[in-house]
Design brief:
Blueprint: H1 2-19, E1 22-23, H2 27-31, E2 36-39, E3 43-46, H3 48-55, H4 62-89, E4 96-97, H5 100-109, H6 122-129, E5 133-142, E6 155-164, E7 170-178, H7 187-201
Parallel strand pairs: 2-4, 2-5, 3-5
Antiparallel strand pairs: 1-7, 5-6, 6-7
Protein backbone atom coordinates (compact mmCIF):
# COMPACT_ATOMS: atom_id res chain seq x y z
CA UNK A 1 0.00 0.00 0.00
CA UNK A 2 2.81 2.40 0.87
CA UNK A 3 4.43 1.61 -2.47
CA UNK A 4 1.22 2.40 -4.34
CA UNK A 5 0.71 5.67 -2.48
CA UNK A 6 4.31 6.66 -3.15
CA UNK A 7 3.92 5.84 -6.82
CA UNK A 8 0.70 7.85 -7.04
CA UNK A 9 2.40 10.79 -5.36
CA UNK A 10 5.20 10.67 -7.91
CA UNK A 11 2.63 10.77 -10.72
CA UNK A 12 0.93 13.78 -9.19
CA UNK A 13 4.22 15.61 -8.75
CA UNK A 14 5.31 14.83 -12.29
CA UNK A 15 1.95 16.05 -13.59
CA UNK A 16 2.31 19.30 -11.69
CA UNK A 17 5.79 19.81 -13.01
CA UNK A 18 4.72 19.24 -16.58
CA UNK A 19 1.81 21.68 -16.21
CA UNK A 20 3.75 24.28 -14.26
CA UNK A 21 3.81 27.78 -15.79
CA UNK A 22 6.92 29.34 -17.25
CA UNK A 23 8.20 32.01 -14.86
CA UNK A 24 11.02 34.42 -15.69
CA UNK A 25 13.69 35.18 -13.09
CA UNK A 26 12.71 38.85 -13.50
CA UNK A 27 9.01 38.31 -12.84
CA UNK A 28 8.75 39.91 -9.38
CA UNK A 29 11.14 42.74 -10.18
CA UNK A 30 9.24 43.71 -13.32
CA UNK A 31 5.59 43.19 -12.32
CA UNK A 32 5.88 45.57 -9.36
CA UNK A 33 6.12 48.42 -11.90
CA UNK A 34 3.10 47.30 -13.92
CA UNK A 35 0.15 49.64 -13.44
CA UNK A 36 -1.67 49.57 -16.76
CA UNK A 37 -2.10 46.34 -18.72
CA UNK A 38 -3.51 45.66 -22.18
CA UNK A 39 -4.91 42.43 -23.59
CA UNK A 40 -4.40 41.63 -27.26
CA UNK A 41 -6.95 39.77 -29.40
CA UNK A 42 -6.32 36.04 -29.08
CA UNK A 43 -4.94 33.95 -31.91
CA UNK A 44 -7.53 31.21 -32.47
CA UNK A 45 -7.21 28.19 -34.75
CA UNK A 46 -9.73 25.48 -35.64
CA UNK A 47 -8.45 22.04 -36.60
CA UNK A 48 -8.59 20.96 -40.25
CA UNK A 49 -10.97 18.05 -39.56
CA UNK A 50 -13.55 20.46 -38.22
CA UNK A 51 -13.16 22.79 -41.18
CA UNK A 52 -13.50 19.90 -43.63
CA UNK A 53 -16.61 18.65 -41.86
CA UNK A 54 -18.21 22.09 -42.03
CA UNK A 55 -17.19 22.48 -45.65
CA UNK A 56 -19.27 19.42 -46.60
CA UNK A 57 -22.36 21.45 -45.76
CA UNK A 58 -21.27 24.15 -48.16
CA UNK A 59 -17.85 25.09 -49.45
CA UNK A 60 -16.26 27.76 -47.28
CA UNK A 61 -13.20 29.69 -48.40
CA UNK A 62 -9.95 30.20 -46.53
CA UNK A 63 -10.95 33.83 -45.98
CA UNK A 64 -14.16 32.64 -44.30
CA UNK A 65 -12.19 30.61 -41.74
CA UNK A 66 -9.72 33.44 -41.21
CA UNK A 67 -12.64 35.70 -40.34
CA UNK A 68 -14.18 33.10 -38.00
CA UNK A 69 -10.87 32.71 -36.18
CA UNK A 70 -10.45 36.49 -36.00
CA UNK A 71 -13.91 36.93 -34.46
CA UNK A 72 -13.27 34.12 -31.99
CA UNK A 73 -10.02 35.81 -30.97
CA UNK A 74 -11.82 39.09 -30.34
CA UNK A 75 -14.43 37.28 -28.28
CA UNK A 76 -11.81 35.66 -26.03
CA UNK A 77 -10.00 39.00 -25.66
CA UNK A 78 -13.29 40.49 -24.44
CA UNK A 79 -13.90 37.57 -22.05
CA UNK A 80 -10.49 37.95 -20.44
CA UNK A 81 -10.96 41.70 -20.07
CA UNK A 82 -14.38 41.27 -18.41
CA UNK A 83 -13.03 38.60 -16.05
CA UNK A 84 -10.03 40.70 -14.99
CA UNK A 85 -12.16 43.86 -14.68
CA UNK A 86 -14.42 42.02 -12.24
CA UNK A 87 -11.38 41.01 -10.19
CA UNK A 88 -10.33 44.67 -10.07
CA UNK A 89 -13.82 45.69 -8.89
CA UNK A 90 -13.68 43.11 -6.11
CA UNK A 91 -10.26 44.31 -4.98
CA UNK A 92 -8.54 41.07 -5.98
CA UNK A 93 -6.38 42.80 -8.59
CA UNK A 94 -4.80 46.20 -8.01
CA UNK A 95 -4.04 47.07 -11.62
CA UNK A 96 -5.66 49.04 -14.42
CA UNK A 97 -6.88 46.74 -17.19
CA UNK A 98 -7.21 48.73 -20.40
CA UNK A 99 -10.57 48.06 -22.01
CA UNK A 100 -10.46 46.00 -25.19
CA UNK A 101 -12.23 48.67 -27.26
CA UNK A 102 -9.47 51.22 -26.51
CA UNK A 103 -6.79 48.61 -27.22
CA UNK A 104 -8.22 47.64 -30.60
CA UNK A 105 -8.85 51.29 -31.54
CA UNK A 106 -5.22 52.17 -30.79
CA UNK A 107 -4.03 49.24 -32.90
CA UNK A 108 -6.26 50.30 -35.80
CA UNK A 109 -5.10 53.92 -35.58
CA UNK A 110 -1.49 52.70 -35.72
CA UNK A 111 -2.32 50.69 -38.84
CA UNK A 112 -1.68 47.35 -37.10
CA UNK A 113 -3.77 44.42 -38.29
CA UNK A 114 -4.72 41.60 -35.93
CA UNK A 115 -3.01 39.09 -38.21
CA UNK A 116 0.29 40.95 -37.75
CA UNK A 117 0.27 40.94 -33.93
CA UNK A 118 2.13 37.63 -33.34
CA UNK A 119 5.14 38.87 -35.33
CA UNK A 120 5.50 42.32 -33.74
CA UNK A 121 7.87 43.31 -30.95
CA UNK A 122 6.06 43.32 -27.60
CA UNK A 123 7.80 46.40 -26.25
CA UNK A 124 6.84 48.34 -29.40
CA UNK A 125 3.23 47.25 -29.00
CA UNK A 126 3.20 48.42 -25.38
CA UNK A 127 4.43 51.84 -26.48
CA UNK A 128 1.69 52.03 -29.11
CA UNK A 129 -0.91 51.08 -26.49
CA UNK A 130 0.65 53.21 -23.72
CA UNK A 131 0.71 50.35 -21.21
CA UNK A 132 3.25 48.79 -18.85
CA UNK A 133 2.52 45.17 -19.71
CA UNK A 134 0.84 43.06 -22.33
CA UNK A 135 -1.20 39.86 -22.14
CA UNK A 136 -1.42 37.73 -25.26
CA UNK A 137 -3.27 34.48 -25.79
CA UNK A 138 -3.67 31.66 -28.26
CA UNK A 139 -6.38 29.00 -28.39
CA UNK A 140 -6.56 25.79 -30.38
CA UNK A 141 -10.05 24.39 -30.90
CA UNK A 142 -10.24 20.71 -31.86
CA UNK A 143 -13.63 19.47 -33.06
CA UNK A 144 -14.26 16.38 -35.16
CA UNK A 145 -16.73 16.30 -38.09
CA UNK A 146 -19.47 14.73 -35.94
CA UNK A 147 -18.74 16.69 -32.80
CA UNK A 148 -15.88 16.49 -30.35
CA UNK A 149 -15.67 12.73 -30.86
CA UNK A 150 -17.09 11.83 -27.45
CA UNK A 151 -16.44 12.84 -23.83
CA UNK A 152 -12.78 13.64 -23.25
CA UNK A 153 -11.92 13.98 -26.93
CA UNK A 154 -11.17 17.26 -28.63
CA UNK A 155 -11.72 20.50 -26.76
CA UNK A 156 -9.86 23.77 -26.26
CA UNK A 157 -6.24 24.45 -25.31
CA UNK A 158 -5.37 28.02 -24.39
CA UNK A 159 -2.02 29.58 -23.57
CA UNK A 160 -1.76 33.01 -21.94
CA UNK A 161 1.50 35.00 -21.88
CA UNK A 162 2.54 38.09 -19.93
CA UNK A 163 5.14 40.46 -21.41
CA UNK A 164 6.94 43.38 -19.79
CA UNK A 165 6.26 46.67 -21.55
CA UNK A 166 9.73 48.15 -21.17
CA UNK A 167 11.87 45.24 -22.30
CA UNK A 168 9.32 43.15 -24.17
CA UNK A 169 10.51 40.16 -22.12
CA UNK A 170 8.24 37.17 -21.63
CA UNK A 171 7.68 37.07 -17.87
CA UNK A 172 5.09 34.32 -17.50
CA UNK A 173 3.11 31.84 -19.54
CA UNK A 174 0.63 29.11 -18.72
CA UNK A 175 -1.34 26.62 -20.81
CA UNK A 176 -4.66 25.04 -19.87
CA UNK A 177 -6.80 22.48 -21.67
CA UNK A 178 -10.51 21.87 -21.27
CA UNK A 179 -12.10 18.69 -22.59
CA UNK A 180 -15.82 18.17 -23.21
CA UNK A 181 -17.79 16.19 -20.64
CA UNK A 182 -21.27 16.65 -22.09
CA UNK A 183 -23.15 17.82 -25.15
CA UNK A 184 -23.41 21.26 -23.57
CA UNK A 185 -19.67 21.82 -23.95
CA UNK A 186 -19.48 23.80 -27.17
CA UNK A 187 -16.13 25.05 -28.55
CA UNK A 188 -16.98 28.60 -27.43
CA UNK A 189 -17.91 27.43 -23.93
CA UNK A 190 -14.69 25.44 -23.50
CA UNK A 191 -12.51 28.23 -24.86
CA UNK A 192 -14.15 30.71 -22.51
CA UNK A 193 -13.68 28.34 -19.59
CA UNK A 194 -9.91 28.15 -20.16
CA UNK A 195 -9.70 31.94 -20.33
CA UNK A 196 -11.58 32.34 -17.04
CA UNK A 197 -9.26 29.89 -15.28
CA UNK A 198 -6.12 31.52 -16.67
CA UNK A 199 -7.32 34.91 -15.42
CA UNK A 200 -7.11 33.54 -11.86
CA UNK A 201 -3.53 32.36 -12.39
CA UNK A 202 -1.95 35.57 -13.67
CA UNK A 203 1.00 36.50 -11.41
CA UNK A 204 -0.47 39.68 -9.89
Amino acid sequence: MKTFVGFALVLVLVGCKVNAPYVSDNLQNQTQFHQRIAILPFVVTFNDEYKEGQNRRGRKSASYWQEQERLAGLDLQKELFITLAKRVEKGKLEKVIQDFVSTNKALAEAGIKIQELPTLNRADLCRVLNVDALITGSTQIVVYPFGFGGPGQGGATTQARLFDGGSGELLWSKELSQRPTSGMDTPKRLGTSTVHELAKLLPY
